[in-house]
Amino acid sequence: MPASEESDDDALYVLTAVVLTPAQFPSVLGDDYPEACTALGLEPYEAGYGLVMGQDGDGARWTVVTDDASLVACAVAAWDCGMEYDLAIDERTVVVSLPGWPLAVAVAAPGVPAPHDPEPGPERGEAATSPLAPPDTERWGPAQRRLGADEIALQWALWREQVDSDVTFVSPGEKPHGRVRRVLEEARGYLDAPPPLGRVRSAFASGDARTLRADGPGWSLVARTDDIAFVLMDDAPGEVLPVGRGPELPGLLTALDQLAVRPG
């Protein structure tokens, strides 16, 4: 990632950035967009934010929140394609600078001290708050459950192949596991009572299909609208339960896709 060209000790050496919008946010932070915003002390504005993570001249970790989400989205897209992009944030778009990083960052800025949390103080205008830190994913829980669902969405073909081999297959029409049935019923409940923004998200998949991500209290669901679904639950550590098409799933996925938020 590009680093700031400024020599001022207060300059931010940019390491990475992510988008925080209703349709695209780090799900490790919450089951929906408002919950993810709350984790960062932000108001859940529908236009969203960009989170720019880097180090100052002393090596301290900082997360700069900008309301120019489109600029950050462009930078992330360029980086994902292996292109250089000098992400320079206009100070007028900065919402707040928060100490620490909310996500794990595996790189560090060259020529500055190793990453560390800044000392509490009034620098940059922020109050003496506890530094942000990535959620604990060492033990199974909500954060790891959501990360697992993200990984399945990213590696769909790999997980789909396992269903055809050695993974237990359940279908809504075959009286599936009671906990899976509960998840499907709660997901169907979203059709009558729309959930918080971002609780159901839809992204591009192959052909005319869409990839669905839905979350609820203690569960995550990832599916392709033309295929099956996978369910992960807080009370089933490490388990990934496939849900077959059956007579019910296609209609449920189509309906969820219609109410889901999509990237702009």
TrEMBL record:
Which residue ranges have biased composition labelled Basic and acidic residues?
A: 116-126
In terms of domain of life, where is this protein from?
Bacteria
Stretch list, region Disordered: 112-142
Instruction: State what protein this is by name.
Output: Integral membrane protein
Origin organism is: Streptomyces milbemycinicus
